[in-house]
Amino acid sequence: MGRKLLLTGGGRCNLTNAEPDEKIFLSKYGSADKFLFSAFARFGVKDTLDFFKTHGVETAIEPGQRVFPVTNRSQTILNALVDYLKAGQVKIMTGAIVSGIVGQTGTLEAVKLANGKKVRAKAFALATGGKSHRETGSTGDGFVWLRALGHQVIEPSAALVPVAIREAWVKKLSGVSLDQAKLTILIDSVKQKTKTGKILFTHFGLSGPLVLNLSREIGQWQKEGEVTLSLDILPEYGYDQLNAKLQEIFKQDSNKKLKNSLGLLIPESMVELGLKMAKIEPAVFCHSVTREERQRLVRGLKAWPMTVDRLLGLDDATITSGGVALTEVDFKTMRSKLYSNFYLVGDVLNIDRPSGGFSLQLCWTTGHVAGEACV
C-alpha cells in the first residue's frame, strides 16, 4: 500500500506547495482553476499542513515553495496516513482485485472483485490514479470503469516526463543537479521559450522540476521541427559579470591549474567537460588562460547545447494528463453528476498541473471533500 506515494518527490514526498496566494496557487491548474475554488475553500494547503502537523509530521519549505517532511522520507507521510486509518478503524482490503463497478441509472450498487464477490456500500469513491508508474498499480483501470458507467473520459497521456538527450556527454553528468539553471528551447535554431529552475542530469538526459514542467511544450514543438536546448548553468551572472568573475578567480588562483579553480564556480563534476567543450586544456595554469579562451569559456558556461531525442513514456511520467471531464463532477462534494453516490478524486480528474507539490495537494483536497460528503 502507498507504493506510488513513496516515489513522490524523488522518495522525499513533495506533499504540497506553500504558495500563500490562493489565486496564484489555483492558476497552476490552468483552466481547471474555476472548478477548484469551492473544493479548496473546504480543504486547502493550510488544512493539509495542519493535518500532518497534528499527526506528528514536521515540514520544511524549499525553493519554489515546495513542502517536504523534515525527515526527507516519503515513508514519513505514508506512516502518518496509515496510522490515521488505523485510529479510525478503517478496514483495508489488500489483494482484493477490482474487476468492475455495478450500477443502475443514477446509483451505484457494488464493486465487483476478480474472485466473483461483490462489495456493497452506500457510497463509492474512485481514487485509482492515472496511468503513470504502472508498476505501482496505476494501470488505468479506473478510466475503463468510468467509460463503462457512461462518463466522458479524455484519453490519458504522459505528462511531466523526463527528456532524453541525443548527445552522449550528458550521460557523464548523471546524478548532477543544479538548483538554478536557465533552459532555452529552440525549434530549428529559433528561440521559443526560456525558463529558470532546478534540473537533474540522468543516464538518459534531463529531469527535475524545470524540465518536467516544460516537457509538454517540448513534445508539442517536436512536431514542428528539431528541438534543441541551450543550458545556462550560471543564470545569476550576465556575460560581462561572468567574465569579470573569471578574471577575479584567475588572478586569485594565478598559480593553480584551471581545472582546480573552476570548481569554485561550478560543480566539480562539470569542470573538465565544460573545459573540453570550450576547447581549453584543463591542466593550463590560470595565469596562462588567454582572453580568447576566457571568452570561449564564458560563452560555453552560459550555453551548453543539447538536442532533444524524445520524451520518455508513461512508465517514467510523474503524472498523466486526461481523465474524467470536469463538467461531470460537482466540486462542492466531488460527486459524479451521473451517480448520486459516486465520488471522483485525484488523478482520475482531467486536471493538468506542474510539479512542485500541486499533484498531491489536488489529491488531499479532493479526497477530503469527497470523504466528508460520503459520510
UniProtKB/TrEMBL annotation:
Residues 1-372 form the RsdA/BaiN/AoA(So)-like Rossmann fold-like domain. InterPro entries: BaiN-like, BaiN-like_dom_sf, FAD/NAD-bd_sf, RsdA/BaiN/AoA(So)-like_dom, RsdA/BaiN/AoA(So)_Rossmann. This is Flavoprotein. The keyword Flavoprotein applies. The keyword Flavoprotein applies. Residues 158-318 form the RsdA/BaiN/AoA(So)-like insert domain. It comes from Candidatus Vogelbacteria bacterium RIFOXYD2_FULL_44_9. Its cofactor is FAD. Keywords: FAD, Flavoprotein. The lineage of its organism: Bacteria, Candidatus Vogeliibacteriota. PANTHER family: OS12G0638800 PROTEIN.
